[in-house]
Amino acid sequence: MRASRESGLNGAARRTVVVVIVLLMCLIGVSPARAAPVSDPNNYWVLVNKTRPLNPLRYVPPDRVNWAGTGHWMRRDVASAVTQLFGGARSAGHSLGVVSAYRSYDEQAALYDHYVRTYGQTEADRISARPGHSEHQTGLAVDVGNTAGQCELAGCFGDTPGGRWVAANAHRYGFIVRYPKGYTHITGYTYEPWHLRYVGVPLATDMKNRGIPTMEQYFSVPANPSIRSAADVAAADSAGTLWNYPGNLQGGFAPRTRIGSGWTGLKSGFVADWNSDGVNDLVGQWKTGRLTVYLGRASGGFLSPMTVGNAGWQSMTITVGKWHNGHRYPGVVGYDSAGTLFYYPNPSGAALGARQAIGGGWQGLKLTMADFDNDRREDMLVTRATGALILYRSNGAGRFVSEPRRQVDSGWNAIVQSHAAAGFDGAGTRGLIAKATDGRLIYRGLGTNKFLGSRVVGSGWGSLSVFR
Known about the structure:
The chain is of the alpha+beta class and 468 residues long. The chain is built from 8 helices and 26 strands. The strands form 7 sheets. The chain has a 4-stranded antiparallel beta sheet.
């Protein structure tokens, strides 16, 4: 697009170019919503999200200014637009202020790591961007709030008089509410009525007039990974065909989609973001003894397998997840034929590191990694031959809390396998999805240190190997 060259112009000329481009596109019958997304970080239309990082990754906007001497930095034209926005709000009887604006790569890294330690990886990815993937790093994003402080950086800001005025009028000043309600499945982030993104008046107005809520939809970006969320269930059938059953975030599934083939000979399969790029990957434990990883593509499908374990894995019982809160990437926990439990760290998002023995006497036990006590640390739920489900709480540093082991449920000898499922019953919900010996698929909601009930969400799963 010609608009990608606007960064070399001054502010007035830049705005003129954008206006002309939008008008020309309309005149010649080209819908702006069919235009290619912009990658130039200096451009006001740059599209940054979980699958479209900044290039360069440590980009620094060249024309940052300190807005009104507050210590909030943003690009020069954004600062002018914010001043006008707040002036318009004052005229309408609303007092607004800046809560946050530009953040550097390193500042975003520190913030994201804080959220991971506090809330866990899954929730952190819903509320915060990874470094190099944040709109705040462009200098085009501004978090705003009521100066009285009510509902600061909270969803209820959208219900305040000031928040409603912002939603109705931001486009007049070149802003959009970047993460609107009901579009988490497209943007990847929860509703943020306070997060404004500067795109310029023509584009913001065009989106408003045409009812296009997100930049992804405006630019028709095909962000369609094969496994979209932690509510999805992947399973291989007896012919080796791999299917994804997308969670509808309302306690059920959308129609399944075929996402792979050649999965015969599998002992166990797992879904994990192995390289922490925001796209779900697959881990295959094969009866031949290999352990392989298939990195997911943001546009769908998977790369060729990467072998992370060459031999001996057929005799292991394993599970995969973020076992150590201090480690960036998920690892493998499993026991060998002697019953020794090991943790295999994943230091680089690729090959496994040296294993660490963390327990003994684990023969014959079934393993499920899940944060049962809701302390943002992955625990181990262990099924004994009697059907008793025992909680082994994690200390978040790759070891177990030293305490008496508590039985949290019974009857699990009828369960073949289970895994954690986030958001299956709606935003913020937690639970387990388990396959029973009779082929039923069962959902168990999770509260804090307890189950919240059980219901059947599928049948006929007996011949399917469900990924955990």
